Amino acid sequence: MHRADLAAFLRRRREMVRPGDVGLADGPRRRTTGLRREEVALLAGMSVDYIVRLEQGRSSQPSTQLLGALARALRLSDDERAYLFHLAGHQPPPAEGTARLARAGLLRMLDLLGDTPATVLSDLGETLAQNHSSMLLLGDDTGHSGDRRYHVYRWFTDPAARAVYPPEDAEHHARVIVADLRAVSGRRHGDPTVARLFQRLQAESADFRRLWAEHEVAVRRADRKTVVHPRVGRVRVDCETLTTPDQRQKLLVLTPTDAESRERLDLLRVVGLEDFPAGTPAR
Asked: 52 lies in a domain?
């Protein structure tokens, strides 16, 4: 662990990130154009004291989980993230691990979208990052572990995942999800992660087996959905997807289709996240 270099790198990167770059207000009484330590701590989900000790070169060795959180908070590029891991005495994540860390460019776009619900997803449907508006509409999906990280797994094994949408739309969504997974399995043929997920779905869901046997293939690019929210009712949204060149990550943006849905999204920002614990979908 190279404490002095790590401390200098973190300080410099913090100073280079403007509050607006990460969705924070740029108040009038700032002594620096960069982020404050407490803002980095908030974004990374760790204590201010630990940030201070890291920047002073007197911390214990950070875990890979903490490094990943710091990389997201500071919007590090892939090369900068790998450098951060090396300075902290860790090997950078392998290809699969890197794919589970939201790319810096997508995170910046997520911040710029502001009040528009948006989510960064892996190609297997794991939520890598959400903005505040997305959490208000769909719940916080960043805290799942194991198989539940993947939306396709939750859809076919947990009725709560389907309750976000009207019952009459369930068949359409199921077909879209399975067709997209088949496209991913073709691109990542022989990938053990995809193979294990497929085997678990085959074993646990007859509905998945039925749809998989139909051999429908379609990458998810655009769609229209109706989200059923307990506070504001039905919200109709258009779904647009921006995919990275390697097709391993995508930015999903939800925009209201009509004035009524826009008004309900505005109301949702007022009522906030009350009654929705982390990891529980808003239904």
From this structure: yes
